[in-house]
Design brief:
- The protein is an alpha/beta fold.
- It is 41% helix and 16% strand.
- It has two domains: 88 residues, Rossmann fold (3-Layer(aba) Sandwich); 124 residues, NAD(P)-binding Rossmann-like Domain (Rossmann fold).
- Helix 1 packs parallel to helix 10 and helix 6 crosses helix 7.
- The chain starts with a strand and ends with a helix.
- The relative contact order is 0.17.
- The protein binds NADP nicotinamide-adenine-dinucleotide phosphate (NAP).
- The site of NADP nicotinamide-adenine-dinucleotide phosphate has 26 residues, from helix 10.
Amino acid sequence: MARLIDGKLISTQIKDELKAEVAALKEKGIVPCLAVIQVGNDPASSVYVNNKKKACAYIGIESLAYELEENISQEELLGIIDELNHNDMVNGILVQLPLPKHINEEAVIKAITPKKDVDGFHPETVGNMCIGSKGFLPCTPAGVIQLLKRSNIAIEGKECVVIGRSNIVGKPMALLLLRENGTVTITHSRTKDLKEITKRADILVAAIGKPKFVTADYVKEGAVVIDVGIHRNEDNKLCGDVDFDDVVDKVSAITPVPGGVGPMTIAMLMNNCVETVR
Ligand code: NAP
């Protein structure tokens, strides 16, 4: 049986460290403030936004909620972001994605000043990450790196394979593993012989968006498997991109779903909020 990489525990450790740091900052009169913008009331987005507000409250970060009508125009939304960009009381700005179809997400992401870009999606933030300059790191991939480091799993020199090349998970994940001196391969839907590549991985990160896609024949004996996927199965239970029961006896360590990567994303968002005032 593999070691379980406990994202719930590790994310709580990170949040407690941040709480202590924020308490010390408060004594110097510094209180980080995050503006959270939600457009419309998609139930899944509401759950994510509420979890972010709760995490802010736990750590002592102030949060400002902007609950905007589904039919708000792109111009109005960009106007609110512009005001927040210039508001010295606001340190971080987060726009919950996805946005309604009539709003161009790319335009919204680019409108947030890189100084307050706590999601790490702005092209300037992405560029800084690519060249290894200081800046915010995207929360989910940064959370995966923390999971590995805090579980004492070395990345340096390891064969790392990432399945998926999205801008929010796969691509930045590969860059961060590379930054940690992993030997990195990115795979995607056009990859030939996927199993042959994933079976080389010492560390396999699955960010495919397909429930239970990764079965035992995709993994090497003793590999470390990180499951970024989140889905609801036919019984309304959460599951990942990895078929946990199928691979668990073959690998050395694995993240569960729920309780693996998911809680780390919020912890790293909170870290970025504190980073704005460090
Ligand atoms: P996405 O934008 O749909 O990207 C999926 C990637 O998987 C694409 O690059 C796609 O390749 C690749 N892919 C699809 N089918 C494949 C196949 N048969 N073989 C190899 N590659 C394949 O998804 P995402 O936003 O990166 O998210 C991935 C998963 O992580 C989802 O389940 C999502 O819900 C979850 N997620 C979790 C968190 C968290 O906090 N835990 C955060 C974000 C996302 P192409 O590029 O060729 O299409």
